[in-house]
Amino acid sequence: MDTSFFSSAVTFICCIFVVAAAFLTRRSKSVPTNSGEDSCNCACSRGSCGGGRFEKTSFLNGGSSSTSSVFGGVEGEMVEKVPATLAAEKLTGASMMEQLVPEITTHALSYLDYPSLCRLSMTNSLMRKAANDDNAWKALYHKDFTLEQDSLTPINGWKAYYAATRAIMNVNADFFNIIKERSVPAMERFWLNADYVKCFHASGEYFTGYNAVIGSWQLAFNWEQNVNFEIRDVKARVMTDSAWVTMKAYLNMGSGNVTNVFELHNGRWYMVHHHCSVMLIHGGAGQQVVQG
C-alpha cells in the first residue's frame, strides 16, 4: 500500500475517535444520577472492583458520606475514575465506532478518495460495513462526477453505479487516446460492428454503418495533422446496457460539444454513436476540435 492510503486512514481514524470522544463525553454528562442511592465512581455499580472493596463511611460530624476503598488493607479516598468512553462501552457492549451517529461516519468517509475507500473496506468487518454504506458512495459519486443525478436511485446501489460510471469514463478516455495516436486498427476494435452506428464529424459530415464510419476515421487520420486538445466537463449517464457521455473539447483557437454513446455487448462497451459540433463563439463558428 502507498503512503497516501496510510495517511488518509490515520486521518480518518483520528477524526472518528475525536468525534466519538466528544459525543460520548457529552452523553455521559447528560445521564441523570440517583442522589437517593449510594453510588460508586468507577465502572462497577457495587461490590468489589479491581481487587479492592468499596464501602460507605460517614464523617465524624455526621455529615454526608463519602466513598472509600480498601486495597490490601490500606484505606484511602477513591479519586481515580474510569474514562467515560470506557464506561459507556462496558454498559452498552459496543465499540466507539459502533456508537457513532451514521451521519458522522458518512461525513468522515467523504474525505477519502475512491482507492482509499476500497482499501479501508478490506481492513475489518466494521470498516467494511462503513465503507459499503450507500450514502458514502453517493457522496463520492457527486464529488468525482456530477451533481446532476442527485434524484437518481440506482438499482444496484451507488457503489455499483459509481463503478459503472468510472468504467465508462475510462472507455471514453480511450477514444480520445486513439485519436491522438491516429490508430485505425484501434478505432476498428472500438466501434460496434453494426449497420446502425453513426458518426457526426465537426466538419458537418456524417456517416452511417460500420464500414463507412471506420473509413471516415481513416481519411481523417491520413489528412489531418496531429492535434492536441483538452476534454473538460465530462458527464456520464449509465443504464443497464447503454451509456452516453457529454463533454466539451478545447483546442487553442476553438471548442466543440461532443456526445458519445456506448452499448454493452458481452461484457464490453462499444461505441455506437459519436457527434462533434463546433461551438459558436461571438456569433461565428469556432475551429474544429476533434476531427471526424
Can you walk me through this structure?
The protein is an alpha+beta fold and 292 residues long. The chain contains ten helices and twelve strands. The chain has helices at residues 3-29, 84-92, 96-99, 102-109, 114-120, 125-131, 134-144, 157-181, 184-190, 210-223, and strands spanning 48-49, 52-58, 65-71, 74-77, 198-200, 206-208, 230-238, 242-251, 254-265, 268-278, 280-281, 284-285. The strands form three sheets. It has a six-stranded mixed β-sheet with strand order 6-5-10-9-8-7, covered by helices on one side. The protein has a four-stranded antiparallel β-sheet with strand order 1-2-3-4, with no helix packed on it. Strands 11-12 form a two-stranded antiparallel ribbon. Helix 1 (3-29) packs antiparallel against helix 4 and helix 1 packs across helix 5 (114-120). The two termini are 42 Å apart. Mean pLDDT is 74; it is low at 33-80 and 282-292.
Structure keywords:
alpha+beta, disordered C terminus, 292 residues, 12 strands
Topology:
Layout: H1 3-29, E1 48-49, E2 52-58, E3 65-71, E4 74-77, H2 84-92, H3 96-99, H4 102-109, H5 114-120, H6 125-131, H7 134-144, H8 157-181, H9 184-190, E5 198-200, E6 206-208, H10 210-223, E7 230-238, E8 242-251, E9 254-265, E10 268-278, E11 280-281, E12 284-285
Parallel strand pairs: 5-10
Antiparallel strand pairs: 1-2, 2-3, 3-4, 5-6, 7-8, 8-9, 9-10, 11-12
Helix pairs in contact: 1-4, 1-5, 7-8
